[in-house]
Amino acid sequence: MLIRRATATKKFGRAARFSSVLAAAAIGRAGATTSDTAARADAAGAVYVAELHPLNTGIAGSDTIGKARIMVRGDVLKITIDVKGAPPDIEHWQHFHGFKDGRVATCPTAAADTNHDGVIDLIETEATSGTTMVPFNDAPATMQIPTETYPKASAKGSYSYEKIVSLKALQEAFAVAFGGQHLALDHRVIFIHGVPATTKLPASVVSLGSIPASVTLPIACGKIERAAG
Question: Cβ–Cβ contacts within 10 Å for residue 75, how many?
Fold first, then answer.
């Protein structure tokens, strides 16, 4: 009887360990399957959109609105961004932001103004929106954030941006910059930045390094969503 019990216990232990291994493998396959499915869907064709809503209107002096559209067809990624109501006659930095661990980013609300100076600066967006990731300038795949090749608003405060890039090149550059992460567009948000250099900002408004706060101040944000169909 003792021998049979001992044998049964050993078999049960081996079975439990084997089940654990199978479960772990299944989870790994599930994660890979999700990524593979998304990759196949993008290769076949996918469209992502972001409705851009105003931020810091009191500082910007107007409601900056717009729409971004990202189309994927095979290795072609086409980005279009149309903006209205931006501060006129200046260049506007624009990027998608997100978290390095792949969490879903969201646009900041008024609660993001943690120092209560009446302005949501770039640093205050990090809690909800993550870090600056991909620039929408003349060469997104270079991943160079500070450049002078961002679009300039007209005298009426509008501009249209269009760029076609290699999906493979952008994904490879992104993976190098962010530890192997995928673009995961529907986990990101798009920011439009910039007010005139003459704008009076509170001393508490923070930027990145030596970049002027007027350049990085967020004036619009939109969550990227995958379009239906």
Answer: 14
